[in-house]
What does this fold into?
Amino acid sequence: MELEKAHLQIVFSEDNLPKYMYKANYRNAKMGMKYIDWEISLGKEGGINQSKNAKKIKDLYIWWTDARPKRTDLMNVKGPMGVSTNEYYEDTTSDKTGRATFSHIGRKKDENPELYESVNKAYNDAEEMYEKEDEKMLIQLIKLRKYLWT
It folds into this structure.
């Protein structure tokens, strides 16, 4: 998207650009998006597969570059009791070196087992959901790989 599609946009569509932009390794997501939007707009004119695949490529690109990085960190996912893993383990060390961490964790687990279960379930459920989503998107990427390069 940022290299090849951008390069195609620059070489075939843009006027009066600086010469360095004509290099094949010039990275520009905006130009890549412009080109992919043009491909999507072709509809049947450019062949239904080109338009359909361009839409899928755009969706994947947006997911990988925008949606996925914005996912909540697993350590910050809150369980049904409103506490995240980070919050649960926040005060488990006795000093700044991290000593006595495990003994504090064990005591905290024994003091409130329901909260411990809630925090761990939230983390594990989110991790499983993220892995399934990643796998789904990787499968889509593999299926589209032959359309990513000209």
